[in-house]
Amino acid sequence: MKILVTGAAGFIGFHLCIKLLNKGFEVVGLDNINKYYDIDLKYDRLAELGIKRGAAQKFQEFVQSKKYKNFKFIRMNLEDRESLPGLFEEEKFEKVYNLAAQVGVRYSLENPTAYIDSNIVGFSNLLECCRNYDIQHLIFASSSSVYGQNKKVPFAENDVVDHPISLYAATKKSNELMAYTYSHLYGFKTTGLRFFTVYGPWGRPDMAMFLFVKAIMEGKEIKTFNRGKLSRDFTYIDDIVEGVYKAGEKDSVNDEKYKIYNIGNGNPVKLLDFISEIEKQLNIPAKKKMMPMQPGDVFETWADCTNLKNDLDYNPNTSISEGISKFLTWFKSYYY
C-alpha cells in the first residue's frame, strides 16, 4: 500500500512516518516547510528520515530517503491547485494522512490569512484529489480547540461545537464539515481526529512543554497564563501516533463513511502541577510570570476517548512523569 503523509516534517507527521515505514508501508512525505517555527528543527526531523537538507529545500522535486527504501519526500503546498493533482495522478495513493496545517491558536490572531490558505484552501484541494483519484480513506487532523469554552467536561464528540473562539478552531471545525460533505457525496471514508495537547521528543517549539523547559534551563521567566489556573489533557506523542495509525487501519466502523474521534490521554493535568513535575525532574525552580488569560485560549481541555477505545482499542498509557522524562532526555541531547 502506498500512503501519503502531509505535514511529514512536522511533529506528529514525522513520528507517524516512522511508524508507517517500520510497518513496511510505502510512504510519500509532503511538507511545505514554512517558517512558522524554526525550520532547522523541521529539516533535522527529515534528516532522521534519511532526507538531506539541501535536497529537501527544492519545491516539487522528489528526494529519496538514504535510510528508508520505502520513503521519499516532496516539498509542496497543499494550496497549490496545479501541482497537487499531478502528485496524486503520478503516485496513485490508496490512503492519505493529512497532518499538514497552519497551527497555533495565538498566531491565528496575528496572521489569519495563513490559516485560510493552508487549512481551508489546502484542505479543499486535498479533498478534491481524494475524490478524483480513488483514495480509500482520508485520516485528517482536527483539534480539541473546536470545543471552545464548552463547560461540560470531559469533551465528547457529540457535544455542540458551534462557537469557536479562535480562527484556528474555526478552520478545524470547517475541515470536519467539509470532510463530512465529501464522504456523503462521493462515498470515500474520512476520519477526523481531535488532538489534545500533544507533547514529546521532536515537539513544536511554540508548545508549553518546549517553552517551559527551555526557559527554566536558561533561568528565564515562564509566562503562566490565567495565573496558572488552567488544565490540559497532555498526551504523549507515542500514544497519539498509535491512535492515528489505528484510525487509518480501521476502514469502517458500523459501515460509517465519516467519523470524528477525540484522541487524548483522558486525564487532565493542572498547569502548575505540570510545571512542578518539570521543576522536579530538572531540579531547577521555575521563575513564573503570572499573566492574564490569553484571547482565544480556554480554561480546560479534557478528552472523552470512549469511542476511540471502544472502536479501535485505543489505550494511552504514558504517564506525565514518564513523558516529561523522555522529552527532557531528547531536549538535552538535541540542544546541549
Brief descriptors of the model:
336 residues; alpha/beta; Rossmann fold; 8-stranded mixed sheet; two-stranded parallel ribbon; 12 helices; 14 strands; 41% helix; globular; NAD; NAD(P)-bd_dom_sf; UDP-glucuronate 4-epimerase; NAD(P)-bd_dom
- The chain-level mean pLDDT equals 95
Shape: globular
Strand numbers in spatial order across the main sheet: 3-4-2-1-5-6-7-12
Say which CATH homologous superfamily is assigned.
NAD(P)-binding Rossmann-like Domain
CATH class: Alpha Beta
- CATH topology-level name: Rossmann fold
Radius of gyration: 19 Å
What would CATH call the architecture? Answer: 3-Layer(aba) Sandwich
Keywords: NAD
Domain NAD(P)-binding: 4-326
InterPro entries: NAD(P)-bd_dom, NAD(P)-bd_dom_sf
Protein name: UDP-glucuronate 4-epimerase
Please render the helix and strand layout as text.
Layout: E1 2-6, H1 11-22, E2 26-31, H2 39-48, H3 53-56, E3 63-64, E4 71-75, H4 83-91, E5 95-98, H5 107-110, H6 112-132, E6 137-143, H7 167-186, E7 189-195, E8 198-199, H8 208-217, E9 221-225, E10 231-232, E11 235-236, H9 237-249, E12 258-263, E13 269-270, H10 271-282, E14 287-291, H11 306-312, H12 320-335
Parallel strand pairs: 1-2, 1-5, 2-4, 5-6, 6-7, 7-12, 8-11, 9-14
Antiparallel strand pairs: 3-4, 10-13
Helix pairs in contact: 1-9, 6-7, 8-10, 10-12
Task: Describe the overall structure.
By secondary structure, this protein is of the alpha/beta class. The chain has one domain (2-196, 236-264, 303-316): NAD(P)-binding Rossmann-like Domain (Rossmann fold, 3-Layer(aba) Sandwich), CATH 3.40.50.720. The protein contains twelve helices and 14 strands. It has helices at 11-22, 39-48, 53-56, 83-91, 107-110, 112-132, 167-186, 208-217, 237-249, 271-282, 306-312, 320-335; strands at 2-6, 26-31, 63-64, 71-75, 95-98, 137-143, 189-195, 198-199, 221-225, 231-232, 235-236, 258-263, 269-270, 287-291. It has an eight-stranded mixed sheet, sandwiched between helices. A hairpin with a 6-residue loop joins β3 (63-64) and β4 (71-75). The termini are far apart. 43% of the residues are buried. The mean pLDDT is 95. This is UDP-glucuronate 4-epimerase.
